[in-house]
Amino acid sequence: MPRPISATIHLDALENNLAVIRNKVGNSKIWAVVKANAYGHGLRCIWPHLDQADGFALLDFNEAILLRKQGWQRPILLLEGFFQPEDLRIIDEYQLTTVVHSHWQLKAIEAANFSNPINIYLKLNSGMNRLGFPADQYRDVLSLARNIRQIGQITLMSHFANADKKIGVTEQLNVIDSVSQGLNISQCLANSGACLWYPQTHRDWVRTGIALYGASPSGKWEDIADVGLKAVMSLKSEIIAVQNLKAGDKIGYGSKYTASCPMRVGTVACGYADGYPRSAMTGTPVIVNGVRTQMLGAISMDMMTVDLTPCPQAQIGSPVELWGQNLPVDDVAGVPGTIGYELLCALADRVPVSVCR
Ligand SMILES: *Cc1c(COP(=O)(O)O)cnc(C)c1O
């Protein structure tokens, strides 16, 4: 028997989520964001189930090449652009659309030879101060780009810092709208949060990541509970040992939990080397035998301890859901103060992944 931990990818949930987003964004085209190995879900096995998307957005050249080799013929967007002039050969060979965020990139394009003009996403820094040309230079840069014969279509791209929060997008959207006023240019602005909560940002293309995987852009499941999104990944394991504690007994490294009365606890085959957050602690939710209970003490590399008080029937071999269709990954992430994104992306290579309908 293999170690009992495994992740399952629910393809019907993935297809459902893309349809939910499609419904939200109306006529806007959708980039399915599949960076970071499709947020930990496994790009190779899931991309065919996202083929209703209009394009795939990612940032690793190897992932782009994999999609082309497996037969994807529609657009692929490089979200961070290219990193050195030599990368332009790959962009040309595999017909990739690239973000352009710095002057050196325009110069490199101008100096290169392509079999066809390349399409670019000219990035505007509208306030996040990560990538992009400043608002007061954007129109000049656009004129430069429009005069480079190696460049085909140009799309204005920008990214929101607070589409998931009450702060919202107004301030950045004002910058974008004033820069683009009177320009005849297509636009791509919205991430998942903006797709769900700010319809005025949808424009020509949207870029949807986390919502496709059924987790919340805000890190809070309540915020998407009535949107119709479903968890795509479930992480499961089993109880591999049971301990009966007396009052005063302690659990795990650092003895961080002390039993205040006699209690039964279970040891689960899941640790931080599987991708579960090392910062998880007492109170992090877990489902054992279909009953919601909690982790106790500190997590080890390969194991964690859970409270069996609410599920007295549980024993060695009882099923454990770490996150998934019955336990939102955001609920798990919230206790150690992180977000579902981080947990999904961190799924470790040693966890076997299978797909199901
Ligand atoms: C990752 C990423 C997205 C997707 O963000 P989600 O919040 O997962 O929808 C969109 N745009 C850019 C530039 C990104 O890097």
TrEMBL record:
<dbReference type="InterPro" id="IPR020622">
    <property type="entry name" value="Ala_racemase_pyridoxalP-BS"/>
</dbReference>
<dbReference type="GO" id="GO:0008784">
    <property type="term" value="F:alanine racemase activity"/>
</dbReference>
<feature type="modified residue" description="N6-(pyridoxal phosphate)lysine">
    <location>
        <position position="35"/>
    </location>
</feature>
<feature type="binding site">
    <location>
        <position position="301"/>
    </location>
    <ligand>
        <name>substrate</name>
    </ligand>
</feature>
<dbReference type="InterPro" id="IPR000821">
    <property type="entry name" value="Ala_racemase"/>
</dbReference>
<dbReference type="InterPro" id="IPR029066">
    <property type="entry name" value="PLP-binding_barrel"/>
</dbReference>
<comment type="pathway">
    <text>Amino-acid biosynthesis; D-alanine biosynthesis; D-alanine from L-alanine: step 1/1.</text>
</comment>
<dbReference type="GO" id="GO:0030632">
    <property type="term" value="P:D-alanine biosynthetic process"/>
</dbReference>
<dbReference type="Pfam" id="PF01168">
    <property type="entry name" value="Ala_racemase_N"/>
</dbReference>
<protein>
    <recommendedName>
        <fullName>Alanine racemase</fullName>
        <ecNumber>5.1.1.1</ecNumber>
    </recommendedName>
</protein>
<dbReference type="InterPro" id="IPR011079">
    <property type="entry name" value="Ala_racemase_C"/>
</dbReference>
<feature type="active site" description="Proton acceptor; specific for L-alanine">
    <location>
        <position position="253"/>
    </location>
</feature>
<dbReference type="GO" id="GO:0030170">
    <property type="term" value="F:pyridoxal phosphate binding"/>
</dbReference>
<dbReference type="GO" id="GO:0005829">
    <property type="term" value="C:cytosol"/>
</dbReference>
<dbReference type="Pfam" id="PF00842">
    <property type="entry name" value="Ala_racemase_C"/>
</dbReference>
<feature type="active site" description="Proton acceptor; specific for D-alanine">
    <location>
        <position position="35"/>
    </location>
</feature>
<feature type="domain" description="Alanine racemase C-terminal">
    <location>
        <begin position="232"/>
        <end position="356"/>
    </location>
</feature>
<keyword id="KW-0663">Pyridoxal phosphate</keyword>
<feature type="binding site">
    <location>
        <position position="130"/>
    </location>
    <ligand>
        <name>substrate</name>
    </ligand>
</feature>
<keyword id="KW-0413">Isomerase</keyword>
<dbReference type="InterPro" id="IPR001608">
    <property type="entry name" value="Ala_racemase_N"/>
</dbReference>
<dbReference type="InterPro" id="IPR009006">
    <property type="entry name" value="Ala_racemase/Decarboxylase_C"/>
</dbReference>
<comment type="function">
    <text>Catalyzes the interconversion of L-alanine and D-alanine. May also act on other amino acids.</text>
</comment>
<comment type="similarity">
    <text>Belongs to the alanine racemase family.</text>
</comment>
